[in-house]
Amino acid sequence: GGRRGNTHMASERATRARARSIKMGASASKPATTATGGPTSGKHKEAKLALAVGGIFFAFSAFAVLQEDVYATKHGPKGEKFTHTFFVLLVERAVNTVVGALGCAAFGRTGIDVPIREILVSGVSQMLAMATGNEALRYVSFTTQVLGKSCKMVPVMIGGVAAGRKYPTSQYLQVLVVTLGVVVFNLGKSKPKSAADDSAFGLGLIALSLGADFVTAMLQDRVKTATKRRNPRVTNAKTSTFESMAWTNAGGFVAALVTCLATGQLADGIEFTRRHPAFAKAIGAYALSSVIGQLFVYYTITEFDSLVLSTVTTTRKIFSTVYSAFRKLENALNATQWGGCGLVFAALGYELLEKYLRRGKRVKKA
């Protein structure tokens, strides 16, 4: 009887050993993971989003102040203002490309197969969206400026859909409500000029800017798809923040250089900088501030998607203005602006509430 008991126990131990061996073999056959992502990459998503939002809000608030120093400051006895927007973009892209490359060298690359061509092309379209948008502001009325700046989320969402991304109905509604809120908020700032101030050239630039936003969003989503396709054995494969920053800005730098050469702004920008050393300091500070902002931008694109980024950057201006209104009484908002704020806050609040309720349901099921 003792021998049979020992034999039975030995049989059970052998069975458990075989089960462990099968389990280990199954896990070994799973795709390998790297530091670029893995099974735990979905955790702490709220903390990552809070970091991205806080970083973008802070960095671009400082960026806006330094941008005003570049374009609004008068230089020399004649009170000259700098108007060469393409040259500014060229300097900004150059500095960000260098910082991205230095980041790759200092912290190492992800070691995955990066879709460089796709990222470079998205950098070109992103630069063109900014360039045409900035130039358009010189040729259209206040109302048209507002519509052009406020509707950016719409082409970004359409671009995501064109790239194969699927959004829930609630997110479509959120984009529409936030866009409406931003339009109402901006229109409440001051009395708009007449639409007669719009030129066909300016309207064409706004159309090009929105079209480039659509293309950029579509390309950024395709970059993620291409990264996963090129790295089938890497779970949740994605480029690092510095890799995205370096290659995207490299594409933008080439596009900005071609644009500067075509418009003559390269020579004019260099000559203006030579005549006014104070401007060189201003554009240098502006470019360095954009580095901080772009680090958070590419972190957001890497961890989330282009629609999340567009939502954050679109609403950032409203939060900054509300903060300014509480800080200084002379910047108080009028009823129309508060109405626009209400729409934006309601849309964002509804999304947070919906996520909280969904999480509660999952916890109950568990």
Report on this structure.
Helix content is 77%, strand content 0%. It has 13 helices and no strands. It has helices at 2-28, 45-72, 85-107, 116-136, 142-150, 153-162, 169-187, 200-230, 241-263, 265-275, 277-303, 306-327, 335-365. The chain is globular.
Would you kindly provide a brief summary of this structure?
The protein has 366 residues and is mainly α.
Keywords:
366 residues; mainly alpha; 13 helices
- Which residue ranges are poorly predicted, with pLDDT under 50 across at least 5 consecutive positions? 19-42, 192-196
Shape: globular
Q: Round the mean pLDDT to the nearest integer and report it.
A: 78
Element-by-element helix/strand order: HHHHHHHHHHHHH
Distance between the termini: 45 Å
Instruction: Give the % helix.
Output: over 70%
Radius of gyration: 26 Å
Oligomer classification: single chain
Question: Which strand-content bin applies to the residues?
Answer: under 5%
Outline the biggest β-sheet.
Answer: none
Return the structural class. Answer: mainly alpha
Distinct helical segment count? 13
Total strand segments? 0
